[in-house]
Amino acid sequence: MKIVVGISGASGAIYGIRTLEVLNRLGIESHVVISNAAIQTIEHETPYKLKDILDLVSYSYDQRDIGAAISSGSFKVDGMIVAPCSIKTLSSIANSYNDELITRAADVQLKERRKLVLLVRETPFNLSHLNHMTLITQMGGVILPPVPSFYHLPKTVDDIVNQTVGKVLDQFGIDAHLFDRWKGMELSGTQL
Fold first, then answer.
1. Which residues participate in the annotated binding site for FMN?
2. Is the confidence at residue 72, as pLDDT, over 60?
3. Which residues are annotated as a binding site for dimethylallyl phosphate?
4. Which residues are in coiled coils (predicted)?
């Protein structure tokens, strides 16, 4: 299996980093593009250095490298995750504005009918944001904002991050065992 991961400059870089950690742990080939804004966000929000992240991946590409392998549909991958996905990146993908590698690689996934999952990281959404998400969905992409669930009773931020990353990887049929799945609610011993 081969997965492309784009990390854009929105808050929430830990989602992309954790995704790469899990792919590395599972031995899944990863191809990463990290935007310049994401590098700044990573330095601000996390204890990770760029080198630490690049040590997790199989291949890395410069955001300006429009000629990279992942910019072509003939380069076979199983899909792409953009985590986090800034509104700028969302808008560029929705409008096929492929001036940078993250958006070009995402556009390739859509045109080749491969899985594309975007962790759109902005709230509240305005109508333009929603319209762009609708366009992506109509093209076959998956909008998966990092909205935490609480049925698994998270105790740490890591628990919340892991649940979201687990749901992202579920989109690719990868069960990384990152969170407890819903098993139903017991209602005072009542059997329905």
1. 9-11, 35, 86-89, 121
2. yes
3. 151, 167
4. none
